[in-house]
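hey
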């Protein structure tokens, strides 16, 4: 059996006889294209339905004044990305256990986000699902991810960025690290999702980078999933770029954060996620700094947090903030690839 054929078999191809069945490169490209196409086709169907169901976004009254015009814009649009990425990766990577794990974690986090959106919009509870309940579910999903990842690949070493060295952890330490990554990633993407196209564009960049990470670590199912996720995010941008017709909501942001965490764990690039997701980290750090500063001194460091709102209130147009943050996300991707190569 040739190396290329072996890769195709390892992926557990969901479309037997397809012309790309023995070419991992075409499998990833096909996953990207199918994820993009499904998301584009679902948009004109799902978005009007969300409006009819009155699943509209409530805009913060203390936020930037320019955001008030977004009141009522349909939310829960993350279902488009979940649908596009999930179906595409299942069609191409099929029953491969790594793929099923990635899709399952994305859907699990998406369901938590959907519950949060539902409580906010339908039940009219502005805070959504209680914070401790969300944290508990995120921890449980992190433990599930750690257990399944170790069952598939019992390796608890962690790559140290820029060194090429791997640091050994015991099983408990590794599980704690995975749970932390799950909680941090889901919440970081959620905090970043505050401007039209911002989070989906950044995850698109991260997903494409994870295709390279997966390729470099021999995780071809993960490469297919990352490609499908990138295609879903690109398709979603068709409806989410400024001025957005739909927001992803917690349904999308938690699903995307969970997907990135799962990709980092399966490709054993856990610590690189901090570099690759540098913009998400900065957004989260800005919130932490703001809260700590206000509680200790009564003063705010930023005009408003997360960080993207600070630039808005400094006079930057929304599109300018998004484009600069995308550019920073690309720089972080380059730094991540450099760190991966050691």
């Amino acid at each position: 059996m040739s190396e290329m054929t072996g890769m195709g078999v390892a992926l557990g191809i969901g479309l037997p006889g397809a012309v790309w069945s023995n070419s991992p490169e075409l499998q990833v490209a096909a996953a990207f294209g199918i994820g993009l196409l499904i998301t584009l086709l679902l948009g004109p169907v799902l978005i009007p339905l969300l409006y009819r169901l009155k699943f509209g976004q409530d805009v913060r009254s203390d936020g930037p004044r320019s955001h008030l015009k977004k009141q009522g814009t349909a939310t829960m649009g993350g279902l488009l990305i979940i649908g596009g990425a999930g179906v595409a990766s299942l069609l191409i990577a099929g029953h491969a256990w790594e793929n099923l794990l990635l899709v399952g974690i994305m859907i699990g986090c998406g369901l938590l986000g959907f519950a949060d959106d539902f409580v906010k919009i339908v039940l009219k509870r502005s805070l959504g699902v209680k914070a401790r309940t969300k944290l508990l579910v995120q921890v449980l999903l992190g433990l599930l991810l750690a257990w399944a990842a170790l069952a598939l690949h019992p390796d608890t070493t962690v790559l140290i960025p820029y060194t090429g060295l791997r640091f050994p952890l015991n099983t408990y330490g590794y599980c704690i690290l995975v749970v932390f990554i799950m909680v941090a990633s889901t919440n970081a993407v959620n905090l970043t999702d505050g401007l039209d196209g911002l989070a989906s564009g950044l995850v698109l960049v991260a997903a494409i980078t994870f295709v390279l990470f997966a390729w470099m670590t021999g995780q071809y199912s993960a490469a297919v999933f990352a490609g499908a996720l990138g295609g879903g995010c690109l398709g979603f941008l068709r409806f989410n770029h400024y001025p957005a017709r739909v927001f992803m909501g917690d349904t999308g942001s938690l699903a995307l954060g969970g997907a990135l965490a799962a990709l980092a764990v399966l490709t054993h690039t856990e610590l690189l996620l901090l570099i690759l997701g540098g913009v998400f980290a900065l957004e989260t750090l800005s919130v932490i700094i703001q809260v700590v500063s206000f509680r200790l001194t009564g003063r705010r460091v930023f005009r408003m947090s997360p960080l993207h709102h600070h630039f808005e209130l400094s006079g930057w147009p929304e599109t300018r903030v998004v484009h600069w943050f995308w550019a920073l996300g690309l720089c972080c991707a380059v730094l991540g690839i450099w760190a991966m190569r050691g």
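Residues 1-20 have pLDDT under 50 and may be disordered. The longest strand covers residues 157-159.
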